[in-house]
Design goal:
- This protein has 333 residues and is α+β, with helices and mostly antiparallel strands.
- The chain is built from 13 helices and 16 strands.
Length: 333
């Protein structure tokens, strides 16, 4: 199995250390998948991966491999990001996987895991003796949550522990997030704050513009819930989000189906208490399941969060409304 080599390669290049997760229940998985692949679940505070060793599937076509990945995803759970592990792979196969947005690792040569960022090294690095410092193309969820929180508050007097509690992550995750922001040139080390030892190194709007190209879509998935099945406790946790939130800050009309948001961690406490349906209909609301905490004002996502949530919506009405909203945004300089 190539799990050790793959995890070492990811750690070498991204500085991300995964630990082994729960033992995957393979009993319901078809026999041809159980016997044809190796499986290992690993995790950090931010993401869970299911590593799938494909070294015994060298002659499988790209089409068949994609079908197998869909099958594995269906039997392993949608919260796991499937990452295929190869010792070698043709350029053609890699192109097919990238087009299908299927994550994979070829230790020493290529990493394609959109949730972590994409990395390509032309030459193999035998035994990884040379470690190259490579920039991450996209932010980690915790890094993005921290950036949005700090842009919304400009409050660096909070300790790492306080920020970790606010963002529902570990202190170590906050430390890593600050390190990533520092490497991106977004924050600088400082000894004048009461809490963490960093400050923004530019005006807030310029920081926003600098980090904008590295932002990720914070929505893990959307579910549709019958409005009358939401109890009071869940209602208090749901935050007005998406187009519903944008309509509060602009002239855009409210959508027919109200949009709310909640983190994947928080929604777990309410599983089985609401009724979801497979599509939007009269009487349903859209609930965005977020990868990380979002900045909130009075039960509504902060304008910075709205801009990120609707970043690639592709609707001209929404783009115009976001632009107008951000022009009126009060930065806390």
């Amino acid at each position: 199995m190539m799990f050790g080599a793959a995890l070492k390669y990811i750690n070498d290049q991204f500085g991300i250390e995964f630990i082994e997760g729960a033992n995957l229940d393979l009993s319901k998985m078809p026999l041809f998948l159980r016997n044809g692949y190796g499986f290992l679940e690993v995790k950090t505070d931010d993401v869970k991966l299911l590593l799938v060793d494909c070294t015994q599937k060298k002659n499988l076509s790209g089409y068949d491999l994609i079908k197998n990945v869909e099958n594995i995803q269906r039997h392993s759970g949608h919260s796991l990001v499937i990452v295929l592990i190869f010792d070698v792979a043709t350029n053609y196969l890699r192109e097919i996987l990238i087009k299908a947005k299927i994550a994979f690792v070829i230790p020493g040569k290529q990493i394609y895991i959109p949730v972590l960022g994409s990395l390509y090294i032309e030459r193999m690095q035998p035994k990884y003796k040379v470690k190259k410092k490579l920039s991450v193309s996209k932010m980690q969820p915790t890094t993005q949550a921290l950036l949005l929180n700090l842009l919304a508050t400009n409050d660096f007097d909070r300790t790492m522990e306080e920020l970790a509690k606010e963002l529902s992550v570990s202190k170590m995750s906050i430390s890593r997030a600050f390190k990533e922001l520092h490497e991106m040139g977004i924050v600088a080390e400082s000894n004048i704050t009461k809490g963490c030892t960093y400050l923004f190194n530019d005006r807030l709007y310029e920081i926003w513009r600098k980090g904008e190209e590295k932002l990720i879509n914070p929505i893990m998935k959307e579910i549709y819930i019958l409005g009358n099945s939401i109890n009071e406790e869940l209602q208090r946790e749901l935050v007005v989000s998406g187009e519903s939130a944008l309509s509060e800050y602009s002239m855009l009309g409210a959508p027919r189906n109200a949009v709310f948001g909640i983190t994947s961690k928080r929604i777990k406490a309410f599983q089985g208490t609401y009724q979801s349906v497979p599509f939007k209909d009269y009487g349903t609301c859209v609930v965005e399941i977020w990868k990380h905490e979002m900045p909130i004002q009075n039960g509504i996502v902060d304008p910075l969060g709205i801009a990120v949530l609707l970043l690639n919506e592709g609707d001209e009405r929404i783009e115009i409304s976001i632009r107008e909203m951000m022009e009126d945004y009060s930065w806390k300089e």
